[in-house]
Amino acid sequence: MALNLAALVATATCHPQPRNWNRSHPYNDHAAEGCDTKAVDRENALKTRPFPVCSPFDRVLSTMTFEYIDIEDPVFKATSSERNEEDYVLVRCNDYANVPINLPNWTPDPVCLSRRFEQIGQTIKDMEVRPDDVWIVTYPKSGTTWTQELIWLVCNGLDFQQAKDVPLDARFPFIEQVYLHRHDPSAEAFQSIDLLFHSLSGLRNLPEPFNPLRDALAMSSPRFIKTHLPPAFLPNALWTVRPKLVYVRRNPKSVAVSYYHHSVSLHCYRGTLDQFVRSMMNELVYYSPYHKHLIEYSELRYPNMLSLCFEDMKRDLPGAIRQVCRFFDKSYTEEQLAALAHHLDFGQMRQNTAVNRRQWVEYNLQQTNRPDRVNDNDMQFIRRGETDGWKRELSGELIEALDRWTLDRVPKDSKYAALFQ
After folding, report:
1. Do the Cβ atoms of 139 and 247 come closer than 8 Å?
2. Which residues pair with 165 in a beta bridge?
């Protein structure tokens, strides 16, 4: 549909351009102002916006900030319907000039996301960032939930009771989750995505409709915010306000196996483990490319960032806890630290209904005609938390293929090789 230029100009007078929007930003083939409003005012203002949907003018800006590119891979095109991947799309961010990254001539690659990202991408890019925010960023299935719980408790006086009473999603919202989770169109209860979110909000005591981005925008300070987005997609204000940011990485083979089970359980993925791993190696699962994600965060010139490794945390959880305490300038007794380590034990985490999303998993499996898998450990949100479980699940051929994939992206003599061990 052609744009009505006069209407666009008229609309523009009511919608100022985002502060960091660059009309002249070049297309590259390779690759809010702070708000003084009180939390209650933000919440009241947002009540009339159940979803942060762009206005017509915002959508024009959105197309300039983000490009949406259909996936042309022949295997993907032939199988996306049967695997439940119809909404996957490559998204290129063209607004990245403010990202403080130590990569010469850097231009970010397109990222595999859902088409629903168009509803919220610009809102995230322009969102207010506060100095006392706490952000956690990971590639999916890298120990995110585990580290969220650790961070929140360290920053909130080890309030174990509140951590058990209030779901982690309410304490530490996942801002792009509103678009990400898929529904099975063959299941009657999932015909409306709004119905799914309404039902889930009732199960998890979140506002209706289910919208973590709205919740994060309205939260009182200090806010705890989770995302899986790569640097170019984060709010522009993040790079000037510089709140504390924690990044967690994990071995690619562990990520691949865990991400597959997560996708089957919660994204209703209908392919095999072999198919999923090969899609990941083709950079065609949500948030890929994987290696670029880790490398870009490792090269940020961001003085207020803590980088953690899942395998290191598993080998020495007390040491990781002390590292997090130092980063947030918190001090606890040895007895308190031992209690925190016990709370974070994976056996305890699996039993903790505030973090294990058990009701969500049960609901999803029931509504997608898989009730027989409710007690299947592979269907649980917190599954095993192992560092070498991939050895039992991946074939020799897949292990060799994943190793070759990493070597192709990151040679052994590269300074980044240690990120993927």
Report:
1. no
2. none
CA end-to-end span of the chain: 49
Q: What are the pLDDT digits (tens) for 212-262?
A: 888 899 899 999 999 999 999 999 999 999 999 999 999 999 999 989 988
Question: 323-353: string of b/e by CB count within 10 Å (b at 16+)?
Answer: ebbebeeeebeeeebeebeebbeeeebbebe
Q: What's the CA gap between 95 and 97, in Å, rounded?
A: 6
What does the pLDDT read at residue 137? Answer: 98
User: What are the tokens at 415?
Assistant: 């300074």
Q: What is the pLDDT of residue 71?
A: 96
Tell me which amino acid residue 291 is. Answer: H
Strand partners, 114: 88
Spatial contact of 135 and 225, defined as CB atoms under 8 Å apart:
yes
pLDDT in tens, 307-357: 999 999 999 999 999 999 999 999 999 999 999 999 998 777 777 776 766
Residue 300 DSSP label: B
Write out the two tokens for 3. Answer: 């744009």
- CB contact at 8 A, 301 and 100: yes
Token pair, residue 217, equals 């925008």
- Take residue 207 and report the two structure tokens written for it: 């506002």
In whole angstroms, give the CA distance from residue 58 to residue 12. Answer: 9
pTM of the model: 0.77
